[in-house]
Structures are given as structure tokens and as C-alpha cells.
Write a structure and sequence with these properties.
This protein has 459 residues and is of the alpha+beta class. It is built from ten helices and 19 strands. It has a single domain, classed as Alpha-Beta Complex (tRNA-splicing ligase RtcB), CATH 3.90.1860.10. Helices cover 28% and strands 25% of the residues.
Length: 459
């Protein structure tokens, strides 16, 4: 059986077509554009001409003194704080054309989550954030729903044992490897030379959770799921990014950008809009480091998926299966060099997925809600992008104050998952209605498969 891998990511300046670790058959890889040098057209004139004849599926907001904000938010809420963030971004002098807001848009620390920002001559590190390369991976298996056991507790336990998740203070962090497994060591060997080049320039990044976080899940809204599609096929899906080392890289360069603003007496409406000018040393160092972190994130998901597949194969009584029908691996927190409307620009997707025509992506719902495998329509108005999920309607703190464990149990009935105080902030009611989100972006993507969770592992 041939594996089709849609690697909707930005791994490196030198393109490589790599098989996902779950299998090594023939691979058809769709490797995304690079962060670095100039690239060819992502959106041609024919695509633009067609889009201009279509009825508008978005709303246009024009902030004073800024470029327009195109919002795919019809039928979904957007809070005032998120709109103010978008307005501040739209007023930056290097924004290309407009700012695009996806239907899952909401206020974020540093930058608006669910935003797509194209820039010429500068990058805003906080618009990428500290979870660099965060994204999704899903694989379709040859298992049917009827092949799964009636009680899924053992399956959840096997996944939890195979993939470090969560965190705990001190040297015995349960979310890190104490001793690297062979597969993790092999994966790290492909990343280590690039890391060495980065740390030669920035030695403080050496003392970070790098190799020990490769193949680990993390905390918050990161998850691993077993899902079933409409035709009763079983899928494995997971969500994570560049972990501790990506956080360290993002934090370091966000501060460097702020330092540059102070150095040149540049006053900003929001200090998190601090930027690095293209051609400067800090800019070039950031591009190299963020590109490496994005490659780490992609590899992190591949290593975890291999562990999940092996863990489930090892369960007593599990039917032999393959996870080789279709695999999708896509970033939703990243920056890439792309060509839009005739110009080579940096496109920062903060909580958004690239959705060029034919691109495969993943849009997960919340715990207890459905998720979607989608195919991009290549809409140039959104800079060929779509949402990365449902999007929060309230903060984690607010969710913990409003809801109880009993609420969590009712909302996740039928899903084998944690149902305790530690995950109340991820309760489905803290998120937007995923059906409304999908309807608002029907001109950006089409649905390939609809998935419902039966097992969910949270950090």
C-alpha cells in the first residue's frame, strides 16, 4: 500500500522529502515553502481572477491608519480584545495588503490567535509566538471501528505509557525523557547539526529541553486521539510543537526584537509587535533558529506518532493493522517565505493552517467535538489559509471558575479521557462551535473526512 504524506510544513531551506516514521513505503510529500530565500508564485493571476468573481465570504474592517482586516467570522464571535490586537497589527508599516483573521480568531498572548500576517522587510517574532511549529498530525489506519475493544481504557493507558506527557517540577519531569529511546536518538541526530550551528551563535540556548523533549506531548491543549471517520475507519491524531527548545528560541528572539525597538526609540501600540528588520543579524539568526524549531516540531510529531502506532499494535488481542493509507502533518504556528500578489513576503500564521489548492490540513474541534481533515481551496484573499481549530471563547482561568468536573464528564461522555480538575480548562464549552467555524470558512477549505474522538490523551 502506498502512503500519501501531505507534509504541510516548512522544514528547512534545503528541501527534503521524508517518510513519516510509521512506515517507509513510497512517499508523495508536499513540503511547504521555505522561511529563507525568495520563492516562486504561490498564488497566480488565474486564481486571483477567479476569486475576484466570487461573492465575499468575509467581512472587511478598516482600522484608522492601517491596512484592512479581512475577517472570516460570520456567524462566530470575536471579542473586542482580539479586534484591538488585529487593528494594532494592521497599523504596522510593513504589512502586505491586509491582515486576515480566521473564524477561530481570539485574543492571544503576544499576538492574535487565528491571524495571518504577511510582511515585507520584517518579521514580528511574537506573531509566531513561543510554541514555534505547533501543529497537527493524523494517520488513517486499516482498522475499522468494529476492530476496537469495547473498553478503551487499556488503549489510552498504552498511549500514555508510550509518550511522555504533561509536566512536573524538578529533574524528574514526567513530560521529558530520562533516557532517550533509540528512535528518539536517531531522530535527534538529524536535528543536532542545525542546533549546534544555532547554539554556536547563541550559547544560552544550549541549556534547554531539546533532545529530552523530542517525541513528547507537552501540556495545555496538546493531545493524542484515536478517532473514527464517517466510513468507520480508525485514525490516530495528535497535536504538539517544538516543546521546551522552541519556547526558549521564541522567548529569546521576542526579547531581542523588543531590545531593538528600545535601541532605535521606536514606540509601538503594543510592545509585542516588536520586529526584526530583514537583513539585520538578529533577523537572519531568527530565521535560521525558527526554521530549525519548525523542523523539530515536525519531527516531534512523527516520533510520537510512531510510538502511538507501536503502542496500539502491542495491545493484547489487537488485530494487525497498517497506518499507511494517508498521513497529514501540518504546522499552524509558523512563518514561511511565500509569494502573494506578485511579491515575496513572510507569511506568519499564528493559529492558522496553509490551505493552498490541494493542500491537506487538520482542523480539530475541542474534547468531545468532531474534527476535520480538509483540503485547501487556495483562496488568495486569506493568503491561502484556514483556521487551526475551533478557537477559545473564554480563558483557561474563566473556564476553571465556571465549570465543574461533573460538567466535564457530561461534555466528554463516550470519550475515553481524563475527567478531572486538571483538564476543566479544555472543556468543550470553552471553545467556539466547530460547525459554525467550518461554515464561516467554506470558501477556504472543503472537508475530506469528519472524525469523532473515542480516546483522548491530554498533557
Amino acid at each position: 500500500m502506498t502512503t500519501t504524506i501531505a507534509t504541510n510544513t516548512t522544514p528547512a531551506i534545503t528541501r527534503t522529502d521524508e517518510a513519516v516514521a510509521v512506515a517507509a513505503p513510497e512517499v508523495v510529500a508536499d513540503v511547504g515553502p521555505d522561511v529563507g530565500p525568495d520563492v516562486g508564485p504561490d498564488v497566480g493571476p488565474d486564481v486571483v481572477a477567479v476569486a475576484q468573481r466570487l461573492p465575499l465570504a468575509y467581512e472587511v474592517h478598516q482600522p484608522e491608519g492601517g491596512v484592512p482586516i479581512k475577517r472570516w467570522t460570520r456567524g462566530v464571535p470575536i471579542e473586542d480584545g482580539a479586534l484591538r490586537q488585529l487593528e494594532n497589527t494592521a497599523r504596522m508599516p510593513f504589512i502586505h495588503k491586509w491582515v486576515a483573521a480566521m473564524p477561530d480568531v481570539h485574543f492571544g498572548m503576544g499576538a492574535t490567535i487565528g491571524s495571518v500576517v504577511a510582511t515585507k522587510g520584517a518579521i514580528i517574532p511574537a506573531a509566531v509566538g513561543v510554541d514555534i511549529g505547533c501543529g497537527m498530525m493524523a494517520v488513517k489506519t486499516t482498522l475499522k471501528a468494529s476492530d476496537l475493544p469495547d473498553n478503551l481504557r487499556a488503549m489510552r493507558s498504552a498511549i500514555e505509557a508510550a509518550v511522555p506527557h504533561g509536566s512536573s517540577p524538578g529533574r524528574n519531569d514526567r513530560g521529558s525523557w530520562k533516557n532517550l529511546p533509540d528512535g528518539v536518538s536517531e531522530a535527534w541526530a538529524t536535528l543536532q547539526p542545525g542546533f549546534a550551528r544555532i547554539t554556536d551563535k547563541t550559547p544560552r540556548l544550549k541549556n534547554t529541553n531539546n533532545a529530552v523533549h523530542l517525541g513528547t506531548l507537552g501540556t495545555g491543549n496538546h493531545f493524542i486521539e484515536v478517532c473514527i471517520d464517517g466510513d468507520q475507519w480508525v485514525w490516530f491524531m495528535l497535536h504538539s510543537g517544538s516543546r521546551g527548545v522552541g519556547n526558549a528560541i521564541g522567548t529569546y528572539f521576542i526579547q531581542k526584537a523588543k531590545d531593538e525597538m528600545r535601541r532605535w526609540f521606536i514606540n509601538l501600540p503594543d510592545q509585542n509587535l516588536a520586529y526584526l528588520v530583514e537583513g539585520s543579524q538578529h533577523h537572519d539568526d531568527y530565521v535560521e533558529a525558527v526554521e530549525w524549531a519548525q523542523a523539530f516540531a515536525q519531527k516531534n510529531r512523527e516520533v510520537m506518532m510512531a510510538a502511538v502506532v507501536q503502542a496500539i499494535r502491542s495491545l493484547d488481542g489487537m488485530k494487525p493493522f497498517e497506518a499507511t493509507a494517508l498521513a497529514v502533518n501540518c504546522h499552524h504556528n509558523y512563518v514561511a517565505k511565500e509569494n502573494h500578489y506578485g511579491d515575496n513576503v513572510f507569511v506568519t500564521r499564528k493559529g492558522a493552517v496553509r490551505a493552498r489548492e490541494g493542500d491537506l490540513g487538520i482542523i480539530p474541534g475541542s474534547m468531545g467535538a468532531k474534527s476535520f481533515i480538509v483540503r485547501g481551496k487556495g483562496n488568495p484573499e486569506s493568503f491561502c489559509s484556514c483556521s487551526h481549530g475551533a478557537g477559545r471563547t473564554m480563558s483557561r482561568t474563566a473556564a476553571k471558575k465556571r465549570y465543574t468536573v461533573a460538567d466535564q464528564e457530561r461534555a466528554t461522555a463516550g470519550v475515553e479521557c481524563r475527567k478531572d480538575e486538571g483538564v476543566i480548562d479544555e472543556i468543550p464549552m470553552a471553545y467556539k462551535d466547530i460547525d459554525a467555524v467550518m461554515h464561516a470558512q467554506r470558501d477556504l477549505v472543503e472537508v475530506v473526512a469528519t472524525l469523532r474522538q473515542v480516546v483522548c490523551v491530554k498533557g
